Amino acid sequence: MKPAPFDYIAPESVEEALAVLAEAGEDARILAGGQTLSPMLNMRLVEPAVLIDISRLPALDYIRRKNGHIEIGAAATQNALENWPELAAQAPLLAQALPHIGHFQTRNRGTVCGSLAFADPSAELPLCLALLGGEVVLQSASRQRVVKAADFQLGMLSTAREADEIISAARFPVAEAGAGYGFAEMALRHGDFALAAIAVKAGKTGVRIAIGGVADRPMVRNFPAGIEGAALDDALNDLAWDLAAADDPHATARYRRELVRRLGRKTVEEAKSCRV
Predict the structure, then answer these.
(1) pTM, whole model, 2 decimals?
(2) Are 190 and 223 within one domain?
(3) pLDDT > 70: what percent of the chain?
């Protein structure tokens, strides 16, 4: 299939992009990497009147450390982040998760903020943002606001972004000294969305675990710092049931619960043994 007709606009500045978005509102879509939007256009799952291409705006193409966060602009690709020289030291969780996102060809085009905007509950970057307690910067022609991860992803493919806003940047907290990080997922094929994904931070005051691919958004739970053995198994079992998994064409609810238990224990143990 081919997309329905639309007006294509390549603004020369962020201000111009926001002005067009303010005028078009819900009839517009933002194009950055296009790895999700392009197939949706071709299948006519979305039929915008206006497509605003921000992929070539230098003001949005950056990765930098700022105020204890790694700040990533809306035009920065997943591949750029994966190859950022400071990534392993500053954000070991992201360094572990990024190779699981699609394939290197799609990471060359797909953007970090685009993945957050799509808000698929099985996607890796929303999971990492939730675990780390990151935030997104939402910008419109009239204002800018910062939204915490817990308040941003509202459900399946649903976020707190308004129709006249773009995600101008995402912010992931830098690694905490003395903490360990772990990431694991199970997919039908490498590059597919996860049947279940686990992200863990083992810090001095507790173990924080986030689960993706089971509920309608990433779910986060905090465990005591010294949890292990049977206590860890019981806590993961309770979490697996609390997520209220459902059967679908890809996996049964029972299988997903078992993934939470087994991958959860493995990833918690790895995080505890690999502290920064």
Answers:
(1) 0.94
(2) yes
(3) 99
